[in-house]
Design a protein that fits this description.
Number of strands: 11
Number of helices: 9
Order of helices and strands: HEHHEEHHHEEHEEEEHEHE
Strand order of the largest sheet: 4-9-11-10-6-7-5-8
Shape: elongated
CATH topology of the largest domain: Multidrug-efflux Transporter 1 Regulator Bmrr, Chain A
Distance between the termini: 81 Å
CATH superfamily of the largest domain: Regulatory factor, effector binding domain
Number of domains: 2
Largest sheet: 8 strands, antiparallel
Structural class: alpha+beta
Radius of gyration: 28 Å
């Protein structure tokens, strides 16, 4: 047995020789400072097979990383920030036989991210702002029921009833917003179809599929009683500019009672119409 002092000296000498061998290697402590990750995180990545140090000394436990390793760590952290688990990231890197699944997963995550970005932009909307925007409405499958409503309060009740019925199917989608469609030509009409997003696998009689489509929209801020104002403004824009529409006007509920309570002045509704 060597004295502890000689073992430490030998380890330091080995580390020094390694440094001379390649000045482009980074120690684990340097990586943690540069990338803002913990040593434990790097070891977990290594244990999961996501990260292999360029050099690993089995006796001393010293690990050395290259610039390519740093790029790999950044990539892993980016995927984690999108919501992927380490197991999913491992599959993303190494499961080449199931790329369609990973592509769909990332597309769904991108849709959620795009929606959150949109929400931040929407929240800057002011009351009375009826600016028309060009957007894309996503492909989705919905649980739909049609009603002739008496007034806005009745429409809200019918939408709630439809939501409850969709929830009881056990197939609601958490990645899209519910909406209503005005099924008649009158901007103030209340012949509505209530649409609650569900998973693609839903096969009930209430199933209706919507294709991805370009659209015009107004982000309306205010109570539901005033949504007709935004629909009328959007309809006027369509007529004045001779825009060809391909579907009914939709009221997509972005922020309402669940997040804003009774403060209806802060409700945000995306009033949209599909176009060619």
């Amino acid at each position: 047995m060597y004295p502890k002092g000689r073992v430490k000296l030998a380890a330091k000498k080995q580390e020094k020789n390694m440094k001379k061998q390649d000045d482009n290697l980074f120690k684990i402590g340097e990586i943690t400072k540069i990338l803002g990750v913990t040593r434990k995180t790097l070891l977990v990545y290594e244990h999961m097979g996501l990260l292999t140090p360029a050099v690993k000394d089995e006796q001393s436990g010293y690990r050395y990383y290259t610039a390519d390793n740093m790029t790999q760590i950044r990539s892993i952290r980016s995927l984690q920030a999108l919501g992927l688990s380490l197991t999913e990231i491992a599959e993303y890197y190494y499961d080449t036989g199931n790329l369609d699944h990973h592509l769909e997963r990332l597309m769904n995550l991108r849709a959620v991210l795009d929606r959150n970005i949109q929400m931040l932009q929407v929240r800057s909307a002011k009351q009375g702002d009826l600016t028309v925007h060009q957007v894309r409405l996503p492909r989705q499958v919905c649980f739909c029921r049609r009603y002739q409503c008496e007034d806005t309060a009745d429409a809200a009740n019918k939408l709630r009833d439809t939501y409850i019925a969709a929830a009881r199917t056990g197939m609601m989608s958490m990645n899209a917003r519910m909406f209503t469609m005005r099924m008649d030509s009158a901007c103030d009409g209340l012949n509505l179809m209530c649409c609650i997003p569900v998973l693609d696998g839903f096969t009930g009689a209430e199933r209706k599929a919507f294709v991805e489509t370009p659209a015009l929209c107004i982000y309306y801020r205010g109570s539901y009683e005033g949504i007709g104002t935004a629909i009328a403004a959007l309809d006027a824009y369509v007529r004045e500019n001779r825009v060809e529409t391909t579907g009914q006007y939709r009221s997509i509920y972005l922020e309402g009672p669940p997040s804003r309570g009774a403060n209806s002045n802060d409700y945000i509704t995306e009033v949209a119409v599909p176009i060619r």
